[in-house]
Design goal:
- A hairpin with a 2-residue loop joins β1 and β2.
- The chain is an alpha+beta fold.
- It has a three-stranded antiparallel β-sheet.
- It has a single domain, classed as Transposase IS200-like (Alpha-Beta Plaits).
- Helices cover 43% and strands 15% of the residues.
- α2 packs across α5.
């Protein structure tokens, strides 16, 4: 659970899934208050950019492109997003196994690490045993590998 206070407004969100990649990042947040979860990302990353610019005596934007927020209103899509986010390092060819990528909370989901940036109540409600999630993600990766080359570009848009 993240609680951020700024301008006398408290934002409360839970981190469901995240993955930091060399050229982008994914955060899946659950909104626990009336304020939009996108405000949390905006405030966190604006603060980070200000700190980074000050430390390295630079100005301007740090991240390329605009921040995108997507409202998720279906449970099946929510669970798919979790595995999509966690599968990124293997999907993009950065590591052969997800366990080799330390920059996500996949390790918390499978019980290999005890971190604080994860909503474990959500994880255990949907995957009571870590191996169930491990297999859920692996099924996605295996399905992508078996996809015919001719159809892959159309389905991955």
């Amino acid at each position: 659970m993240l609680r951020l206070k700024k301008y006398s407004v408290e934002l409360s969100v839970a981190v469901v899934a995240y993955c930091l990649m060399p050229n982008h990042y994914h955060f899946l947040l659950r909104q626990d208050a009336l304020d939009a979860a996108g405000l949390v990302a905006q405030r966190v990353f604006n603060s980070y950019v200000k700190m980074f610019n000050k430390r390295y005596d630079r100005t301007g934007t740090l991240f390329e492109g605009r921040f995108k927020a997507i409202h998720v209103d279906r449970e099946g899509y929510l669970l798919h997003l979790c595995r999509y986010i966690h599968a990124n390092p293997v999907k993009d060819g950065l590591v052969p196994r997800l366990e080799d990528w330390p920059y996500s909370n996949y390790h918390e989901w499978i019980g290999a690490r005890r971190g604080s940036l994860v909503d474990m109540a959500f994880v255990t409600a949907n995957f009571p045993q870590p191996d169930l999630y491990r297999q859920f993600v692996q099924d996605y990766l295996d399905g992508r590998a078996k996809m015919p080359k001719e159809i892959k570009p159309y389905l991955l848009r």
